[in-house]
Amino acid sequence: MNFLDHIIRFTGPFNLTGLPAVTVPCGFAQGLPIGMQIVGPAFQEGKILNIADVFEKLHPELKQNPIVLKQ
Fold first, then answer.
1. Rounded to two decimals, what is the model's pTM?
2. How far is residue 58's CA from residue 26's CA, in Å, rounded to a whole number?
3. pLDDT tens digits for 42-62?
4. Handedness of CA 27, 40, 15, 52 (dihedral sign)
């Protein structure tokens, strides 16, 4: 898989269809941040941005810096 395919594999379908999408932090796995992608119906950008805003306000602990693991 080339670099471009790797970085757009989760966003590409929504870029092609024009559906609005946003990603918010939703936790950590082995000290690394994980994001949750919220996708909405066409022309409903405000709706998904409101959902993302509410999620981030309900979970402020998810905005912390990731823990650096030593190997």
1. 0.73
2. 11
3. 999 999 999 999 999 998 887
4. negative
> What's the structural domain count of the chain?
1
Angle at 8 between CA 7 and CA 11, to 5 degrees: 130
Helix (H/G/I), strand (E/B), else coil: 67: coil
Report whether 34 contacts 23 (CB < 8 A): no
Helix (H, G, I), strand (E, B), or coil: what is residue 15?
helix
22 domain residue, yes or no:
yes
Q: How confident is the model at residue 71 (pLDDT cuts 50, 70, 90)?
A: low
Residue 70 falls inside a structural domain: no
